[in-house]
Amino acid sequence: xxxxxxxxxxxxxxxxxxxxxxxxxxxxxxxxxxxxxxxxxxxxxxxxxxxxxxxxxxxxxxxxxxxxxxxxxxxxxxxxxxxxxxxxxxxxxxxxxxxxxxxxxxxxxxxxxxxxxxxxxxxxxxxxxxxxxxxxxxxxxxxxxxxxxxxxxxxxxxxxxxxxxxxxxxxxxxxxxxxxxxxxxxxxxxxxxxxxxxxxxxxxxxxxxxxxxxxxxxxxxxxxxxxxxxxxxxxxxxxxxxxxxxxxxxxxxxxxxxxxxxxxxxxxxxxxxxxxxxxxxxxxxxxxxxxxxxxxxxxxxxxxxxxxxxxxxxxxxxxxxxxxxxxxxxxxxxxxxxxxxxxxxxxxxxxxxxxxxxxxxxxxxxxxxxxxxxxxxxxxxxxxxxxxxxxxxxxxxxxxxxxxxxxxxxxxxxxxxxxxxxxxxxxxxxxxxxxxxxxxxxxxxxxxxxxxxxxxxxxxxxxxxxxxxxxxxxxxxxxxxxxxxxxxxxxxxxxxxxxxxxxxxxxxxxxxxxxxxxxxxxxxxxxxxxxxxxxxxxxxxxxxxxxxxxxxxxxxxxxxxxxxxxxxxxxxxxxxxxxxxxxxxxxxxxxxxxxxxxxxxxxxxxxxxxxxxxxxxxxxxxxxxxxxxxxxxxxxxxxxxx
Length: 642
What we know:
Subcellular location: Membrane
Number of helices: 8
Oligomer: single chain
Strand content: 35-45%
Structural class: mainly beta
Keywords: Membrane, Signal, Transmembrane, Transmembrane beta strand
Pfam families: Omp85
Number of strands: 32
């Protein structure tokens, strides 16, 4: 993770970030496009703020500009929007076509797309009429020339007609025993072409899940009854035989080992075919991060042994990468980071990453700057395709408010995907550290065995609308130098629920709780205690600002904590969202959280949806502010707060 990503994430190291962080977030998300000559353009999130586009049209032969008007008097607002989105003429209106022939071709293609959009909305009597310079498209000769003043006027008139519903539903062939209602085919229900095609795919998928890879629709009879505005659907399906996996062949590999790629699919020859396993194999190959694209295709017929061959097509990414990043906060100063990595070190998707960072420039004395450096290695497929071996060495010198910390840590372990939603991991770690905190100077040598379980069925990692994620973490630890033994326990859960069908209103909840048992507060190193407050915790409060403090007002951490958050994520437009939220949390020196001493913060956030996740800006105030707490906090990040 780059410094830009870490500053924005509000995850493992929450920060108190004010207006400078918002500026930095924008800079991290900005692309500057410069071209030869005098033309230059500046874009942010794909929106051109300034610059000429003449150079973009230089490759068009005989450029011809046009202006399009869409008239759909019978359509409601939602349907008008769908039609406009389906129109290539409308989408490309700012870009000229290549002469009169180009305009004719674009208009003919547009009519087909608009009819398809009407069918998707169950408008099977819809009529699309396109005129160019006032002449109907069908009346224009193939070599028509438009010589009038530009832009050439193009008018699209759409008579939508009535909306059809499903009528008689019949499933035949090997699907005769299935119920159409189980797949969304219900008399009086949605008759849109998309709904019918989705039902077809679901029926075929259901048969494939029985181990029948050749299942397909052999005949489709769709009859639109214009007198009753109903759509009768008859589908004939052939299931085909139950089969196992045949040979897996791989194409497109260059630097990645082909046999290893085949092995990582996990599709063992002879085991019964499963479309879900094929999907998981594709996701697993993409998860190696060495391929730009991965496609798995079943053959059209079974082999001589009655198995289905699987073809894998991949395209590789560049193996090496590097980057630099920076952070700035008015409270924590300037931070710089650099990293170099290799995605395919020995040809089997082994990863090596070396990184270093320095922070606190401008806010700390030169003798109290923060340093971090590490090297990490990963090797997938060590005990089966679902496994991953990892190892690393990291050194850190940091000076947060709670303590001064120098440490060298080494770890090695294994993670394993039980299935698409569940992952377990185990590792052994050895951590040598010197820490100065409110209790004095201490030297530790901690041996630990972190164990973790994660269940995650969210529909998106960066912007979930449904599903939930749960994490359970146990870390038994032993201080070899001082003889203290303790166990760190932590659990987290977050859930997401769409209030409406379009997911314009999403309710998000998060709960986290933790406890350290087996040792007193002074026996637990300061960097392993619990802290709360800040952008990734309870917004409105300072980083590490919630919980017990020493006589100088500095945080000392605790043996237990509890946090919870509630957000309503409201989509104002397709790209803009507003998020009111409430956070609460507490930290205690006891082994169980003290719920009577909860700190609560509330605020509102702004979201801008980008291809790499939402850009987040949150403003919050503490509702039960203490004398040392700030009056407000502003936080910026990429991705939702949780």
